[in-house]
Amino acid sequence: TSQGNFEKERDLCIQLFDQWSESDQVEFVEHLISRMCHYQHGHINSYLKPMLQRDFITA
């Protein structure tokens, strides 16, 4: 199934991502975000907001 392919491809991408430096990871994620649509940006924003607030509170 295509879902099975997605999961294998995603896992491979994550394995590669984990080998990169933090700055390379940031550059890659910025590139991904630049290719996403407005709706996806809103979804990512909702995902990140609680993380960023928690980091700010504990800092």
UniProtKB/TrEMBL annotation:
Pfam families: Beta-TrCP_D. Residues 14-53 form the D domain. Keywords: Ubl conjugation pathway. This is D domain-containing protein.
